[in-house]
Design a protein that fits this description.
This protein is mostly helical. The protein folds into three domains: 106 residues, Orthogonal Bundle (Arc Repressor Mutant, subunit A), CATH 1.10.10; 57 residues, no CATH class; 55 residues, Orthogonal Bundle (Arc Repressor Mutant, subunit A), CATH 1.10.10. Helix content is 63%, strand content 2%. The protein is built from twelve helices and two strands. The protein has a two-stranded antiparallel sheet. A hairpin with a 7-residue loop joins strand 1 and strand 2. Helix 1 packs across helix 2, helix 9 packs across helix 11 and helix 11 packs across helix 12. It starts with 6 loop residues before the first helix and ends in a 9-residue tail after the last helix.
Length: 244
């Protein structure tokens, strides 16, 4: 299918697929990375117009048609193609650009997520520390870092200084029995409404493994089902409710 598209369109398809949700300015920020010399370039706005005209497995997320996402299976295909064509370094650079763009626009949750995707743990922690209501992003990054040191005792609140008493409270609530990085990923997919089979496909794991992770998530949150887990996660700032 991609072979039948113009190179400048393929460029935007592959680069925008790294983001769960995207808009024209974000596409502009990402698209320049893989632009080919001598090729005609198009704007992010023109690309989104083309997506809507061709109905290219894209879903509008607002009435103004500014934000979009790809169908999950199509996004998986694009991500696989992007990795094959561009490689790890270029994909990491795309995530870095996405993180910077989301940070400038005030989308801290997304900025942290893309910083983590680059492997820049310090940057992810810095973003979380700047924004108290998203302290969970920093704690998530710190959990990764601390796990690498195999020092579980250092998860105590006394060793975690974010310069804000409210942040410390949230961290203490979490770090009594923290969610793993994989559990955070699955929790975010649950929030998006994905079924367990779809989550398994996205993460390249079995459905039974997803079920086990969900049981652990529910246990750690003290709930019994998906809806209650999401509600509790909003209350603890593990997830951020984006009101439109």
């Amino acid at each position: 299918m991609l072979n039948n598209q113009k190179p400048e369109v393929v460029k935007y398809l592959l680069s925008s697929a790294i983001a769960d949700n995207f808009c024209a300015p974000l596409c502009n920020a990402l698209g320049g990375l893989v632009a080919e010399a001598g090729r005609k370039n198009i704007s992010g706005e023109a690309f989104l117009d083309w997506l809507q005209e061709t109905n290219m497995f894209v879903i509008s997320l607002d009435e103004e048609h500014k934000w979009f996402r790809y169908h999950h299976l199509f996004q998986d295909l694009l991500r696989e193609q992007a990795m094959r064509r561009y490689g790890n370094d270029a994909i990491a650079e795309l995530h870095r650009r996405a993180s910077e763009w989301f940070e400038r626009e005030g989308f801290w949750k997304e900025a942290i997520k893309h910083a983590l995707a680059t492997g820049d743990i310090e940057k992810a922690a810095e973003l979380g520390e700047k924004n108290a209501y998203l302290a969970v992003g920093a704690s998530k990054a710190k959990v990764i870092k601390l796990k690498q040191k195999s020092n579980r005792e250092s998860l105590g609140v006394k060793n975690t200084s974010l310069g804000n008493s409210q942040v410390s409270t949230y961290l203490q609530q979490m770090l009594i029995e923290p969610l793993t990085v994989r559990e955070f990923e699955i929790l975010e997919f649950l929030e998006q409404g994905l079924y367990q089979k779809e989550i398994a496909h996205r993460l390249y794991i079995s459905t039974e493994t997803v079920k086990t992770h969900c049981k652990h998530i529910y246990h750690k949150l003290g709930v019994k089902n998906r809806r209650s887990a999401i509600k509790k996660s909003y209350a603890l700032n593990l997830l951020v409710c984006n009101e439109t």
